[in-house]
Amino acid sequence: MIARGLDAYRSVDVDSAILSASSVELIVMLYDGAMTAIQRAKGEISQKNHAAKGALISRAVAIVAALRDALNEAQGGEIAVNLKDLYLYIEKALMEANLNNSSERLDECHRLLSELHEAWATLAKSDLARSTQAAKTDGTSTISYGKV
């Protein structure tokens, strides 16, 4: 019963974070989700729990595919094209890791996603700092209660 309550609380907390997040913060959350799935999949490899490992790697692949699909090559130019290629590489590496139970390939994918995560997290912090400074100068609040 307590566990169910904690799960419900976590779900509300995650839902609230998603509703109030900027697009940059949502991307950071997606990277977090993919990296968490990869780390958990490594644990399942060591426990020889192939079904759970496969489900977690599938989750990571789906997240990376969503990031790839969200790219706008017309607007993003060469950066978007390069990110697309990197995402495709990571997806392939994740599938190989799943097929071969390779913790090393998972480590590689985690490292690549971690570098991207760091860049996007820095961007999110600078966006937050800009919006906070703008609110101080124009008197508006930076607190969001969803769509109003």
From TrEMBL:
Chain segments annotated as coiled-coil in the UniProt record: none
Any single GO BP term: bacterial-type flagellum-dependent cell motility
SUPFAM superfamilies with a match to the protein in the record: Flagellar export chaperone FliS
Entry keywords, A to Z: Bacterial flagellum biogenesis, Cell projection, Chaperone, Cilium, Cytoplasm, Flagellum
Species of origin: Leeia aquatica
Record protein name field: Flagellar secretion chaperone FliS
Subcellular location, record wording: Cytoplasm, Cytosol
Cellular-component GO terms for this entry: cytosol
Family membership: Belongs to the FliS family.
Family matches, as InterPro entries: FliS (IPR003713), FliS_sf (IPR036584)
One Pfam family this sequence matches: FliS
